[in-house]
Amino acid sequence: MAGSFARSTANYASAFAVTTEAADAWTPVQWARAVFEGAPAALRWWMVFGWTRVLGLRLARGPSDDHVLGWAIADSDLVAGSTALLATSRFLRACNTVTIEGPTVTWVTLVHYSSAAGRPLWALARPIHHLTIPYVLARAARTAGGASAADGPA
Description:
α1 packs across α3. The protein has one domain (2-144): Alpha-D-Glucose-1,6-Bisphosphate, Chain A, domain 4, CATH 3.30.530. It is of the alpha+beta class. The protein has a six-stranded antiparallel sheet with strand order 1-6-5-4-3-2, with helices on one face. The chain has three helices and six strands. The radius of gyration is 15 Å and the shape is globular. Helices cover 32% and strands 27% of the residues.
């Protein structure tokens, strides 16, 4: 499923990483939950608003083991042992992949434009993405430093 988001077909790709001794405290899915669902409530609201109202992404509603803040969870075939979060709209397809390697947690975002409107919409979102993802990733790393693997993100 995540293979349709191969880097060679992406119109946009970014990667952000954090190094922490607690990298292996959580699975990639737990890291994804800590990053998105562990963000402050106001920021979570703005992220979901931007994803759904600006980018038009179709997200699942309500808490579930099958998604992270509305993004569908898929095992990633891009990198073994990683997790991919997938969302689509009529304008674009987006994939966020979380990978843990040693003390490093890497968050990769791939976006593929599905229509001509995808490019200008992502141009609006891109600067916010570049500020938000490093912030919530670093915030999750601080939380992971105080958690055990059994705890998972709050």
